[in-house]
């Protein structure tokens, strides 16, 4: 059975969407409070970009830019690639591998419905692999196929 990004990987998320004029410091505080590695920039019906920990490290801290006076739209990753809710975890992993990023916004007909991370996908793939191993062992060793006594 094919798994899909929504609802198999992404479900019941409280999205972190900030307006583009938010200060970098405020975005960092929100990320720390929510223990997340990325925030989306825009509104529910229009994704302008994403701001990740890497963006803050490479584009703010490493360049000596003041997070208290810099808005996130000047350091975000604009127009990020997205994935749809019916795409598979394998589709997401391939896109992430191909472009070297760790987060993908999930967009359904122009509306942001979630964010998938490499960690989410790893957990899903690990779970599926474990399930497959258990099924193979049951087949090989006869578990569940014999007569009960």
Main traits of this protein?
2 domains, 5 helices, 4-stranded mixed β-sheet, 149 residues, CBS-domain, two-stranded antiparallel sheet, alpha+beta
**N-to-C span:** 32 Å
CATH-defined topology of the largest domain: CBS-domain
Number of strands: 6
CATH architecture of the largest domain: Roll
* SS-based class: alpha+beta
As a percent range, the share of helical residues equals: 40-55%
**Radius of gyration, whole Å:** 20 Å
Average pLDDT taken over every residue: 87
Would you identify the regions where 5 or more consecutive residues have pLDDT less than 50? none
Order of helices and strands: HEHEEHEHEEH
CATH superfamily assignment of the largest domain?
CBS-domain
When the domains are counted, the total is 2
Q: What is the oligomer described by this structure?
A: single chain
What features would you describe in this structure?
With 149 residues, the protein is an alpha+beta fold. The chain has two domains: 15-80, CBS-domain, CATH 3.10.580.10; 82-143, Roll (CBS-domain). The chain is built from five helices and six strands; from the N terminus they run αβαββαβαββα. Strands 1-2-3-4 form a four-stranded mixed sheet. Strands 5-6 form a two-stranded antiparallel sheet. Strand 1, helix 2 (24-34) and strand 2 form a beta-alpha-beta unit. The two termini are 32 Å apart. The model has no long low-confidence stretch (mean pLDDT 87).
